[in-house]
């Protein structure tokens, strides 16, 4: 494969995974293990989370819907309480790798994010660090276009904008469900579990030395 572009998810790839924060929250509150992830995964195309990331509901509605969905799985969790758990820490080694990749290939970011002001007084954009976002040739945010991964159209939009062949693209995400449509389009996919693992697989896929 002659690499033309490397496309990244943001949360859980360039930042640490929010799953760690979910686990801490559940332990502190005495909630069933993985109740937040199970709520997110149930009916994942049309649940509260999906609607919020497509900006189809406001924060009040999201809060109530998420509470009802989690209650149906065994314990009520308010949607508002989950939102602050989303902010992972930047992985500096991944940002350094992105800078090296940008020098050689086109770069893109496809992120399922939240409408502006979803997290307290913060804007949706301030979840992202400006100096990182400028490293991408193109960024697609679910809350701005009303589409979210794993809808195949969001990946198609990216390759059309970058003017690249999906067969010459590498795509990184921390969720398998989001990798599947990219793989079906012909992209080389990397499921991110840690910075070191992602960088090793990126080096193998692109032939670049990234550390």
UniProtKB/TrEMBL annotation:
Keywords: Acetylation, Hydrolase. It holds the Pfam family Hydrolase. One of its GO terms (molecular function) is hydrolase activity. InterPro entries: ACAD10-like (IPR052898), HAD-like_sf (IPR036412), HAD-SF_hydro_IA (IPR006439), HAD-SF_ppase_IA/epoxid_hydro_N (IPR011945), HAD_sf (IPR023214), PGP-like_dom2 (IPR023198). The keyword Transferase does not apply. NCBIfam families: HAD-1A3-hyp, HAD-SF-IA-v3. This is Putative hydrolase of the HAD superfamily. It comes from Bradyrhizobium stylosanthis. The lineage of its organism: Bacteria, Pseudomonadati, Pseudomonadota, Alphaproteobacteria, Hyphomicrobiales.
């Amino acid at each position: 494969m002659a690499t033309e572009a490397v496309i990244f998810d943001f949360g859980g790839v360039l930042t640490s995974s929010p799953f760690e924060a979910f686990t801490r929250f559940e332990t502190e509150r005495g909630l069933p293990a993985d109740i937040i992830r199970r709520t997110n995964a149930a009916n994942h195309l049309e649940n509260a989370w999906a609607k919020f990331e497509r900006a189809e509901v406001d924060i009040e509605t999201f809060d109530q819907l998420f509470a009802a969905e989690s209650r149906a799985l065994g314990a009520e969790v308010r949607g508002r309480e989950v939102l602050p758990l989303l902010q992972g820490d930047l992985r500096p080694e991944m940002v350094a790798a992105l800078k090296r990749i940008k020098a050689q290939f086109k770069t893109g970011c496809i992120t399922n994010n939240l409408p502006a002001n979803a997290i307290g007084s913060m804007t949706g954009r301030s979840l992202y660090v400006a100096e990182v976002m400028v490293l991408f040739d193109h960024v697609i945010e679910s809350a701005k276009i009303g589409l979210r991964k794993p809808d195949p159209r969001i990946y198609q939009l990216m390759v059309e904008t970058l003017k690249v062949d999906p067969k010459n693209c590498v795509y990184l995400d921390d969720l398998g469900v989001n990798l599947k449509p990219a793989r079906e389009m012909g992209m080389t996919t990397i499921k991110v579990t840690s910075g070191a693992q992602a960088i090793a697989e990126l080096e193998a896929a692109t032939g670049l030395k990234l550390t």
